Amino acid sequence: MIKDIATVSLVLLVFILIFVIIMQIVSMRNLKKSRSHMEKLQGLLKPGSKVILLGGIYGRVIKMSEDTAIVNIAKDVDIKVDRSAIKEVVA
């Protein structure tokens, strides 16, 4: 009886390990895809680009530095945002 319990436990442990390994592989692929998308997006950014921020705010890039961008969201309203807060380049 104890031998049966040990066998079942071992089989369950193997299935759990396989599941964890598969989840790690899928997670790494998604992270790589996301990083690739962000690098492509950052390459498209330049002053004058229309963008959508993570909060859903539409604007136009006025000025950029290494880590931040100044985005005009309305007449005489410019905001400083982290470049990673830019979700999408519209045009």
Itemize the secondary structure elements and their pairings.
Blueprint: H1 2-44, E1 50-53, E2 58-64, E3 68-74, E4 77-82, E5 86-89
Antiparallel strand pairs: 1-2, 1-5, 2-3, 3-4
Under CATH, the topology of the largest domain is which? Answer: SH3 type barrels
> What can be said about the biggest beta sheet?
5 strands, antiparallel
Radius of gyration over all CA atoms, rounded: 23 Å
Corresponding CATH architecture of the largest domain: Roll
How many discrete structural domains? Answer: 2
Helix content: 40-55%
The residue ranges in which pLDDT falls below 50 over 5 or more consecutive positions are none
Helices and strands, in N-to-C order? Answer: HEEEEE
Average of per-residue pLDDT values: 91
Count the beta strands. 5
CATH class of the largest domain: Mainly Beta
The secondary structure category is: alpha+beta
Q: What is the number of helices? A: 1
The shape, in one word, is rod-shaped
Question: Distance N terminus to C terminus?
Answer: 69 Å
Task: Classify the beta-strand content into a percent band.
Answer: 25-35%
Strand arrangement, major sheet: 4-3-2-1-5
